[in-house]
Amino acid sequence: MFHSLLLVIALSMDGFLASIAYGARNIRISVWIAFLVSAVGTTCLGISFFFAQWITSFIPVWICSWISFGLFFFLGISSLCKGMLKTVFKNRRKRQLTFACSGFSFVLDIYMDETKADMDFNKRLSVKEGLYLAIALSLDSLVSGIACAGGIEQPLFLLLCSFIITGSVLLAGIKIGNVWGKIERWNLSWVSGIVFLILAFTRIV
């Protein structure tokens, strides 16, 4: 249960920071869209988790533990560096790579700046825009589902917490951003990075 809560905290942090940015820029997310984003992330987490559980039945436990460590460690380091990476990508926006799949290019753009999901600049996320945001925020969930397979005894509790907490922090972030817009400038990506690193080392000790 403790590991489940740690994982959900780490996974919901990006959504929380994104919603603060939305609130600071007066972009609204309805309750329906917030929990749509949450449902997509939880579904990605669940699919990757149950798929990985099936795969781990063919792999020795010690190998699974080290794979899990490696994935969580990667997520931790990438989260710690995320603020710097976003700055680099924003500075090189004019030299942005063009992908054959424009949808993927757009999702990557949202991953670097979540407020770009508001494509029509009407200050309200539509269902389509919410889905783009959900996909961008679900990348860590896909990797985490694989990483936590075998280490979570109550997967349904994990998924329920993921759905409720992620949707709730999205709505809370909007309110915080509305009231205290300056917090948007804070780089808090390191918080999820630290949590991912803690999860990584719990897999091998």
From TrEMBL:
The chain crosses the membrane at residues 6-24, 31-52, 58-77, 132-149, 156-174, 186-204. It comes from the Bacteria. The keyword Transmembrane applies. It holds the Pfam family Mntp. InterPro entries: Mntp/YtaF. Keywords: Cell membrane, Membrane, Transmembrane, Transmembrane helix. This is Sporulation membrane protein YtaF.
